[in-house]
Design a protein that fits this description.
Blueprint lengths: L3 E12 L2 E13 L4 E5 L6 H8 L7 E6 L2 E2 L5 H11 E4 L11 H11 L5 H11 L15 H13 L5 E5 L7 H18 L2 E5 L3 H4 L4 E6 L2 E7 L9
Helix pairs in contact: 3-4, 3-5, 4-5
This protein binds adenosine-5'-triphosphate and magnesium ion.
């Protein structure tokens, strides 16, 4: 059974009367616990692909199956429910809610699920990303890297089956970046979370089991990596 399957995925935007195809006939399939990296130049369609896989957006043609549920036949509300149940997402631009504190941002997915002890869980997650003392701060009072870590804590909150991370280390220094990457792989090992990473960092990509390279919206390379995080332990 696949946790994520993408079939003939194509995305075309129309703006100013012109059509722009940003993803062209993308195919892949991941099993639970897989680690997967997507690399490619700026503008090649990586964020678009991640958004389609997570059900944040709809494809122009082709299908996404998340835990064998076909997303393109669902309504926006149904997709939101699936996301809340299965998906964690670390956005390239964080997308924290500006009117909520760091702690409250991490609590959102827990509260949406009606979980008890949301505050305690959220606090523990903030501590794990090194921000235990900053829970009461609003996003504008945090640096880019700190916001990225809050976004990470929020993505972990539901112990998702699938974690999408769009340039998760893009705004972090070497040390913080290593902590964050270790956390991502720890979650993969401990909870069997499938990791889908977009990154410019080839060293990070090399820690995953499989890497695809996209260019101009098409997959130009698909590599099974022999030396991955699991095998080097
Ligand atoms: N809503 C939109 N309307 C029109 N074009 C769009 C829209 N969203 C994205 N694009 C275009 O789609 C292409 C792919 O964008 P995307 O954000 O997926 O790239 P990316 O690979 O994530 O780039 P980066 O590495 O810079 O983050 C770009 O040319 C972008 O301008
Ligand atoms: Mg992007």
């Amino acid at each position: 059974m696949s946790i994520l399957r993408v079939e003939n995925l194509t995305k075309t935007y129309t703006s100013g009367g012109r059509e722009l195809t940003v993803l062209h006939d993308v195919n892949f399939s991941l099993e639970p616990g897989d680690t997967f990296a997507i690399v490619g130049p700026s503008g090649s369609g990586k964020t678009t692909l991640l958004g389609l896989c997570a059900g944040l957006d709809r494809a122009s043609s082709g299908s996404v199956f998340l835990n064998e549920i076909r997303l393109d036949t669902l309504s926006e509300d149904q997709r939101a429910a699936i996301r809340n149940q299965y998906v964690g997402f670390i956005f390239q631009n964080f997308q924290l809610l500006p009117t909520l504190t760091a702690l409250e941002n991490v609590m959102v997915p827990l509260e949406l699920r009606g979980e008890r002890g949301a505050q305690k869980t959220a606090q523990a997650l903030l501590e794990r990303v090194g921000l235990g003392q900053r829970g009461h701060h609003y996003p504008t009072q945090l640096s880019g890297g700190e916001q990225q870590r809050v976004s990470l804590a929020r993505a972990f909150a539901n112990r998702p089956k699938l974690l999408f991370a769009d340039e998760p280390t893009g705004n972090l220094d070497t040390d913080t970046s290593a902590t964050v990457v270790d956390l991502l792989f720890e979650l993969n090992r401990e909870a069997g979370t499938t990791l889908v990473l977009v990154t410019h960092d080839l060293e990070l990509a090399a820690r995953t089991q499989r890497m695809i390279r996209i260019r101009g919206g098409a997959v130009v390379e698909d590599t099974q990596l022999i030396l991955n995080d699991r095998m080097t332990e």
